[in-house]
Design a protein that fits this description.
Glutaredoxin, 3 domains, 23% strand, seven-stranded mixed sheet, 16 helices, 27% helix, 572 residues, alpha/beta, FAD/NAD(P)-binding domain, D-Amino Acid Oxidase, Chain A, domain 2
Length: 572
């Protein structure tokens, strides 16, 4: 086993995705988890389309499609239902048709238990990396060129602890809201401490619903928080009929309800007005209270935090796990370049600069939904809290004003406002935006339908992809030796791939087939040029530089622009 370059503390989705991204980049890691067993139950279960695209980027989409569930219809009963009266279907998530640029436009449901198992399985299968349970970070010291971590491994069968001192290049805390890494870094965890928030809470957990008791294809809600409220949502775990429950409201004694299984069942029967819901054992249970906080910095020196360690908030809107996944990938590709000595450590400051505005906006949106859901002015107003806006699909998340993006087509006034959640979905395609997909791309010389590919099949978390939109007559000048001439070092070829994209109208591709590009693609249906808003130009190429996280780092028009972009992130 290779000596780990990065120690990851915490084996939830954020830590696991971070580990997989680093390993895809050839960076050895070690993952420790202080819990004695892996998480069971639901927790974060909504996967937004943008996160699903990142699963595709990491090579996980086939695994995900095998275990995902489409969003459940949400049915609300305004009063106890002791009969078969139908409830009100809430307009929670509108199903939107997929498009060529957005092949997955509606999210999935995947319970956290299953997501973590999927990620752990892939880590072990592809790299032989396993999560070390019973293992806790006690402290660390940071040095100029490394970090020393002190960890303790507990032996379940004995009272003896095994202490270990580990030297690594970087330490990443994905260890949740009570993060040891965040606390030892001394990062302030600021947020809403208002008294009215402390008075709100829910008993949340998972419980067995005996087979035949409830339809496992509907999410049911009774009542509202102005008196008492119950949510029962299927967990969709094979061979199990688990139900995720939330019980709360001003008339609910949370401490009493959470004291035993019997009290949970009694509360469910009372709120539903039914006694025919046959329930088994409680899988997990606890009192949830709102905690809305975030840091102003995601790290110091060689130590970083991600996911819940950096931001906690209401689960309304299904943004938490998804934001953690984007933290993980944003940081990982930058750590990989620094670990390979291809980028200066200064690039790591862009992690905070890019993600903090996005997270702050996310907290604002989820808090607004939280108040509508849990503090409605009336039961009727509560319905608004269940409606999920299009921006929560996260297509508009962007880094347009990042210091490591370069845009030679669009400029911004100094005081121009960029919405971190919406601006990337304004109809333009700019540096800092999500890179659109494009299907029906034919490798030159293989134009039959079975050989078609897509941009999402080409992108990788291990390299930058240069999409060079150019007329065939320009390919020699635009592509010839582009990596060597602009970057100067052959080693950069491993982290930069060049794709020549020929327009649909190209009549001859013979010369292009001998290009020094890594791949030459013919845009057979015009989707690529349309989605990237490019008009074939016989005078100059248009080049989109797609980062390893699937965002556009640069939009430039020639060799000088390419050199300038990579000068922002690589040691040239």
């Amino acid at each position: 086993m290779l000596t780990p370059s990065v120690l990851i503390v915490g084996a939830g989705p954020t830590g696991l995705i971070h580990a997989l991204t680093l390993l895809r980049n050839g960076i050895p890691v070690r993952i420790i988890e202080k819990q004695d067993a892996f998480q069971l139950g639901t927790r974060g279960c909504g996967m937004q389309p943008r996160t699903i695209e990142m699963y595709k980027l990491l090579g996980l989409l086939p695994d995900l499609l095998e275990v995902k569930t489409d969003p459940f219809p949400v049915v609300k009963f305004s009063s106890p239902q002791g009969n078969n009266e139908e409830g009100q279907v809430l307009p929670m998530v509108e199903k939107i048709a997929n498009t060529p640029s957005r092949p997955i436009s509606t999210g999935f449901m995947l319970m956290q238990e299953r997501q973590e198992n999927l990620l752990r399985t892939r880590l072990e299968k592809d790299y032989g990396v396993t999560v070390e349970l019973h293992t806790e970070l006690r402290s660390f010291e940071e040095h100029d060129d490394h970090v020393v971590a002190h960890i303790v491994k507990r032996t379940p069968d004995t009272d003896k602890d095994k202490e270990e001192t580990l030297k690594i290049d970087f330490l990443v805390g994905a260890d949740g809201g009570r993060s040891t890494v965040r606390k030892q870094l001394g990062l302030d965890f600021l947020g809403d401490d208002s008294a009215d928030l402390k008075e709100i809470g829910m008993v949340a957990g998972d419980i067995e619903a005996l087979e035949g008791t409830l339809d496992q294809k509907v999410w049911r809600i009774w009542g509202d928080t102005t008196s008492n409220m119950l949510s029962l949502r299927p967990c969709s775990i094979p061979d199990k009929t688990h139900i995720n429950f939330f019980i709360g409201g001003v008339d609910v004694d949370l401490e009493k309800v959470s004291s035993s299984r019997e009290e949970v069942v009694k509360a469910i029967n009372a709120i539903t007005g039914r006694d025919d819901i046959k329930l088994g054992k409680v899988i997990n249970m606890g009192i949830w209270r709102p905690n809305i906080r975030m840091v102003s910095s995601l790290g110091k020196g060689r130590v970083f935090i991600a996911g819940d360690a950096a931001h906690v908030h209401s689960p309304t809107g299904g943004q938490g796990m998804n934001s953690g996944a984007q933290d993980a990938i944003n940081l990982a590709w930058k750590l990989a370049l620094v670990s390979k000595n291809l980028s200066p450590p200064s690039i790591l400051t862009s992690y905070t600069a890019e993600r903090i505005p996005v997270i702050a906006t996310m907290l604002s949106k989820t808090t607004e939904l939280f108040h509508k859901t849990f503090q409605p002015a009336s039961p009727e107003k509560m319905v608004e809290g269940w409606r999920r806006g299009y921006e929560l699909r996260m297509f508009g998340v962007n880094y347009r004003k990042s210091g490591i993006t370069l845009d030679e087509k669009y400029t911004y006034a100094e005081d121009e406002v960029v919405d971190p959640y919406r601006s990337g979905d304004d109809g333009t395609v700019r540096a800092g935006d999500r890179a659109p997909d494009a299907p029906k791309l034919a490798p030159v010389g293989q134009t039959n339908a079975t050989s078609h590919t897509t941009f999402f099949d080409v992108f990788s978390p291990a390299y930058h992809t240069l999409l060079v939109f150019a007329d065939p007559s320009l390919h020699g000048e635009a592509i010839g030796g582009i990596v060597e001439t602009t970057l100067g070092l052959p080693s950069f070829k491993d982290v930069v791939k060049t794709i020549l994209v020929l327009p649909q109208t190209s009549s001859s591709t013979n010369d292009a087939s001998t290009s020094s590009a890594d791949m030459v693609l013919l845009d057979t249906e015009g989707f690529a040029y349309k989605h990237y808003d490019v008009v074939a130009d016989s005078q100059r190429p248009t080049i989109f530089i797609v980062r390893p996280d699937g965002f556009i780092g640069g939009l430039v028009f020639g060799v000088e622009g390419i050199r300038k972009y990579f000068g922002l992130i690589l040691k040239l």
